[in-house]
């Protein structure tokens, strides 16, 4: 009974009402001039939304929304001279709708409620950031990824359009959007923390989206401002730590036995990546107090990354077709040029099915890591230039080397 969907929806509505209501209570003031809605009002409104949804009547939900809307209008008319803003009134309506949504999707309602509460609590930070820290150029630049993701991406055909069946416009443009967003994240991290700390942090978290895309985005920063070379090198190195973490998660889910063979190589790779990142931060010449200039988005570098990856995919597909039936090992190795995690998942799955031995799957996974490293080097050269790729090449090569050493040690230990 306590875990029935109806009870859960009511509990979620109660929690959302409390989260939003606590923030509004702190801002409503006291005495005769206080605002109309506080924590109790928001809790009641959220529960009203959840209760009306239990009757499965759209008309009843609409009537309830209309009544809450009238109460919001009355509240605004009462306080508009002192507070012309509409935040509390709209928050009241949204709270009712989230309460009603909890009956259909409790998780979505909880997430939306938490997001609304966070936005309301971040009022001063958001106002300060938008009004004083963002320039007009940066605000304008913000429209670029929005248009790329919300307008262009849905219009792209989600199918292969080339004779080799590897170029998917939707996937290519999605990569472009990812690079733009990682580029923006790195720029914001610079503004907030300074180049010496912001870019390495951006590189680490960007690696969870795509290490290759992160290296491309950081390369754009280097081309724009060469003084950031060491900081971008640190971020690019730390993006490989995220690659290792994701690899562990993928293998742990698909084939734990293969993970037991690869834990040492992956651990060695992570150690080298962390060391390279720490050294890059230590040697970074750009002071954290330096004024950040430039643009948040680099569309040319993002397109260059997507074109480079597409070219590598077509080359790999052409080689595979020209050599006839390449077999599972060659297919996984070529797949590593685009995405090492997908290639590793393929090897792990084939090992589970018995199509590959565990030893063969281990070698195939490491080969995919190696080919993906080649992609990273090519992308670094295209987006960041000669100095950038020259700084990355030793650390990336060392990562690949220790992975192979780890595999050799694993096989040796198994043989003995």
Give the helix proportion (percent range).
Answer: over 70%
Average pLDDT score: 79
Rg of Cα set: 26 Å
> Helices and strands, in N-to-C order?
HHHHHHHHHHHHHHHHHH
Q: Catalogue the unreliable spans.
A: 286-294
Number of strands: 0
* Broad shape: globular
Largest sheet: none
Beta-strand proportion: under 5%
Fold and architecture overview:
The chain is mostly helical. The chain contains 18 helices and no strands. Helix 13 packs antiparallel against helix 18 and helix 16 runs antiparallel to helix 17. The termini are far apart.
Features:
globular, mainly alpha, single chain, 416 residues, 0% strand, 80% helix
Please provide a brief summary of the model:
It is built from 18 helices and no strands.
């Amino acid at each position: 009974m306590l875990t029935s969907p109806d009870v859960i929806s009511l509990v979620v509505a109660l929690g959302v009402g409390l989260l939003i209501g606590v923030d509004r209570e702190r801002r409503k003031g006291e005495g005769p001039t206080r605002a109309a809605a506080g924590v109790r009002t928001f809790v009641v409104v959220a529960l009203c939304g959840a209760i009306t949804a239990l009757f499965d009547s759209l008309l009843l939900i609409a009537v309830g929304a209309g009544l809450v809307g009238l109460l919001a209008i009355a509240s605004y008319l009462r306080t508009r001279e002192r507070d012309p803003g509409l935040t509390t009134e709209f928050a009241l309506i949204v709270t009712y709708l989230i309460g009603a949504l909890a009956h259909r999707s409790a998780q979505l309602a909880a997430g939306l409620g938490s997001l609304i509460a966070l936005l309301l609590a971040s009022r001063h930070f958001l106002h300060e950031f938008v009004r004083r820290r963002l320039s007009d150029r940066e605000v304008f630049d913000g429209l670029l990824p929005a248009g790329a993701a919300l307008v262009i991406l849905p219009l792209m055909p989600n199918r292969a359009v080339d004779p080799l069946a590897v170029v998917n416009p939707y996937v290519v443009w999605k990569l472009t959007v990812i690079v733009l967003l990682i580029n923006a994240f790195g720029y914001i991290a610079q503004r907030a923390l300074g180049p010496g700390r912001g870019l390495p942090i951006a590189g680490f978290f960007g690696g969870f989206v795509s290490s290759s895309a992160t290296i491309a985005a950081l390369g754009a920063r280097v081309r724009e401002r060469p003084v950031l070379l060491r900081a971008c090198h640190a971020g690019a190195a730390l993006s490989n730590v995220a690659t290792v973490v994701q690899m562990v998660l993928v293998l742990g889910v698909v084939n734990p036995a293969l993970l037991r063979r690869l834990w040492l190589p992956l651990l060695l790779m992570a150690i080298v990546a962390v060391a390279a990142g720490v050294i890059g931060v230590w040697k970074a010449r750009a002071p954290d107090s330096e004024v950040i200039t430039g643009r948040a988005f680099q569309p040319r570098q993002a397109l260059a990354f997507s074109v480079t990856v597409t070219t590598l995919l077509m080359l790999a597909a052409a080689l595979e077709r020209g050599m006839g039936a390449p077999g599972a090992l060659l297919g996984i190795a070529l797949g590593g040029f685009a995405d090492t995690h997908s290639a590793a998942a393929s090897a792990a799955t084939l090992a589970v099915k018995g199509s590959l031995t565990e030893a063969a799957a281990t070698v195939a996974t490491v080969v995919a890591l190696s080919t993906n490293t080649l992609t990273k080097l090519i992308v670094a050269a295209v987006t960041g230039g000669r100095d950038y790729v020259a700084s990355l090449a030793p650390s990336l090569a060392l990562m690949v080397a220790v992975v192979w050493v780890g595999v050799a040690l694993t096989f040796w230990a198994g043989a003995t």
